[in-house]
UniProtKB/TrEMBL annotation:
This is Sulfonate ABC transporter ATP-binding protein. Keywords: ATP-binding, Nucleotide-binding, Transport. Residues 7-238 form the ABC transporter domain. The lineage of its organism: Bacteria, Pseudomonadati, Pseudomonadota, Alphaproteobacteria, Hyphomicrobiales. It comes from the Bacteria. The keyword Electron transport does not apply. Belongs to the ABC transporter superfamily. One of its GO terms (molecular function) is ATP binding.
Amino acid sequence: MTSKAHIRIGNVSRRFRVNGGDLTALDQVSLDVRAGEFVTIVGASGCGKSTLLRLGAGLDIDHDGTVEHDGKPVTGPSLDRGIVFQEPRLFPWLTVERNVALGLENAPFSKVEKRELVAKQIALVGLTGFEKAYPHQLSGGMAQRAGIARGLVNRPDVLFLDEPFGALDAITKARLQGELQEIWAKEQITMVLVTHDVDEAVYLGDRVVIMSPRPGRIREIVPVDLPHPRERTSSQLASIRNHILEILNTTTGSDQLKTVTKQPTPQTRPVARPGPVHAALRANPGGRPLFSTEI
């Protein structure tokens, strides 16, 4: 691992217009992520974790401050930055291999190269033999593997993961955490993962970024100076986990909500800008194939 800042977030603030007032989701947040590092981000719901992730990935560019990738401003999505969401977001009418190939839709590779990349990533996430399966034929863990493969297929040098295992049962979650750790070690790419699960954050991360509630700020960054792969029963991991839990539990009400004219209601919560998959689904409610996706 090098000391070079691969992703640099400098004094970033993000505000949303809610009920005629300004809701501050992030307030003067700065974070450097080194090349090849695995950084995890934890905090209470609504603290701005996912907002910070979207800014780093370029899915949201309406902010104050600077967001850079390899020294260049992040002005939108890029093939160099992959993203995996909590829901796999697979197209139900496409097979596993064609869903994975969607990650190569705008990539400058030949058909042969795309076919090889898809096969490699499917093998990497343990789905060999399920290339022709449809999403409804997969378990939740298998579907999430397909989502991870799609995020990795164009060989990004940064992968952002937004609670990728949050909807899975404990056994499947633990298995996929181990597999993600192996993928990270093998591919040697930078990973940034948002999670509510402190155990997951400590098990996977080189550093754990602890966010305070709105307005979102970085409260503390805790290093996890333990070699990979890690033992879940390690007393050292338990000690770091307990330290992080203490920090989260001592959050006071003064950290809560920055001034707004009206309190946000569930109907007016800020939502993420829809990505291409969501937009395509809304534009295609009948389920007609939108992509040829030959591989």
